[in-house]
Amino acid sequence: MASARQDFERFIAWLHEPAREIPSNVRRLINLASANFDALAQTSRNRSQRSVYLTELARAALAQSTDEAPIPQLAPANGAWPWRRLGHLTLGPFRGFRTPEDFDLQKRIILFYGPNGTGKTSFCEALEYALLGAVEEAENKRIDPQVYLANIHENRFVRPTLTACDHQNREVDVYANAEAFRFCFVEKNRIDAFSRIAARPAGQRSELIATLFGMDQFSDFVSQFNESMDGQLVLEPEKERELTARREALANDQTTVEGDEQALEVLDTEEADLARGYSAEMTYAGLKQLIGNDEVEGRLQELEGILNAVPPALIGATRDGLLAAFEAAEELHEQVGRIEAALAERSAQVSFIDLYASVLALRETEGDRCPACDTPLNGAAHVVTNPYEKAQAGLDQLRDLAELQENLATSQAELGTASRALRQQMSDLNRFVAAHREEETAIGRYLSDLPAEPAGAWWTPLQKEHPQEETVLLEQLLTVADRVAAQDTASALAQQERQRNIEERDGLNGFRLAVQAQDLKRQQHVDNVAAAKVRIAEFDEANAELIAQVAQERLDIDRDVPIKAAYDRFLTEIRSYREQLPGGLMAGLNDMALALYNEFNRNDLDADKIAELHLPLTGEDKIEIVFRGRPGARVDALHVLSEGHIRCLGLAILLAKAKSIESPLVVFDDAINAIDHDHRGGIREAIFENDNFLDMQLIVTCHSNEFIKDIQQHLPQGQREHCSVILFRPHTGDYQPRVTRNVPIANYVAQARAAKNLMNDREALAASRQALEMLTEKTWRWLGSHDLGLLTLQLAGVGAEPGLRNVCDAILRKLRDSAAFNHASKGRLIAAYGRILGIPDANLIWTYLNKGTHEEADRDDFDGEVVETVVQTLEALDAIELRRGR
Question: Fold for domain 84-176+664-673+697-743?
């Protein structure tokens, strides 16, 4: 983590400033951390790794570490750089370069392009290593530099050599100085990371500026320090407290031994009170004997044996109950018989009841005629007697018969209930007989054979006057009921006695538990006294190790308390320094970054450009902007800007930083590819066409040939000779990139002049046609910047693009018709476009421009003078100041 180390060294220098008055131990700890930075950086806050490592380090070497400020690595002040422009770079074996390769870097603008994987990144990393002493990508990937920088085919790398031209035009060697040259690099990865962090919630953007300026490794390094080292330090006299507690316990032991006799007296009193709780004459020994134990049984065991014998359950059968049930069943049986006999005598009348009820039931449907003969009830021909009235009268006369029927139903239900009650009495007797194992007696067989629901007057055989041999009589059952009643009386008395025994047992159990607790209390006291006597006798010997630990603990506390104080102050200072980084990095960049941002976004509406830019001064501040269309309304830039605009803002901040320190060099490591196509034109114009970076050397790597071509097309004429283009191409099997130096310039005007100098008129005219298209577009944009961009054009049809000649003609008309527009370039533009359009030479120039772009059979040679005129006219047009707003 070389970049984190460099930032940490800057922190150390900041901390050692005399005005900060940092305690000596804090400075010692910081110098110690710096001396062991690589190992320290490998730790993290996870499981307190870092605080554990620092604790071991501080204990071993803090006292011997110096508190003097380290010798600072001097960085040039603004305007005092050791050189003004790079000269030559030789690299290889290094990363993708297998053999040494030399690059001439003396031009102000050097453009590298080629497909991915052809060595552009290796070239930039060689520059980074030569200027900074490390390669950030290796650190980000945590790969050892010896491994990362080595060419895999040579298994080694050679340190690149870099020279430069100083202010006296002397060639000097360039020495790595991360402090001086860190802001010379503008990398795609940083701009990408800046836009990604901008998409996070506001609370997660504290590392925004650190990421943009490549200080995220230092920010991450700081975040890995634990909040405290207390868990690894000896700060409290725990051993001494333990020893003190043991000594206090020893005093307690003395008190325990001295109070032994009194304590035993108290126990005796408690035991006597417990025994008297059972009875006034009872002693404690007698109570224990009464209760008994495993060896000698007492009253408690005796009661348990008595209670284990459970008396028979109450059956509830008696002679009177059985006889009453029998008589009730017999009486209801006779009553039902009488009612049935009465009904039998009046059976004919029962039929009339049913008839009359049926007739009345038909009244609803047949109410106006006789239900039997269908004769009308009223009218000329009608029944003699109304059947419904007769039926009602008949029912009234037979009401007592209906009541007799109801009584029969009621008596039958009562007879069933009485039969079941008597059957239940028989079941109770059967349980008694079974309990006494008398199932095989005549009574036992009778009772067991009874159905669960016997039918009819099943009990009548019990009262026969002359029974057969196996017939059971009621008197026999009554005798069994007498036996049951006698057993129930005995069981009731046994239950009462059992309850008394239970109460006595429960009471004794309570005393048993109290006796056990009292015996345990006495035994504990005896054991405590014995143990106390042993501890008193053996205290110093038993605690010899703890006494030694207490002495060592005092030394450890004297050692660790200053370490804690130093770490706490160090943590406060390094976090404070990290919080101040944005303010230091962003100081004075607001106006410069704002101007660059607006230039990058030249095509935005004026209301959408920025009127104010407020860069953060602390890690918690926001990047705030004010749009021209909303004066005074400050908003969070990362909340309202699109991702493309955020990338432009990041690039503007980086370039503003480079300008603020008057850096002689800016290296764009594939940075343009981090910007969307809509903004590349504005970025190209701001960096390469305007005067923002005329005093800087610009090195660009890009895989887009079109962007490299556009840079060359739009470079001001006076800057083209200070630009060189280098092409990287894939290897052909030797694993060495093919480097093409001095690639011909892609500017169309320059190409036209080069072709004309070779007397290749056709190629000169083809390039001239392309140059005219480019310059005409540039002129149109220039007119637009002066509010003259509205042209009247002729189109060939619906959806057709305007022809180049029509555009040139419209521009010329606009210039001639704008009498109020006075500009130094106006007359030169009118003259140039007048010649381009062939006036007054019958359009000969335009004819040549068209012919120069098409193949024609048997074509005559071009007139060299006319071709020269075309090229000269384009060179004159190219030399005119056509930058926006100029």
Answer: Rossmann fold (3.40.50)
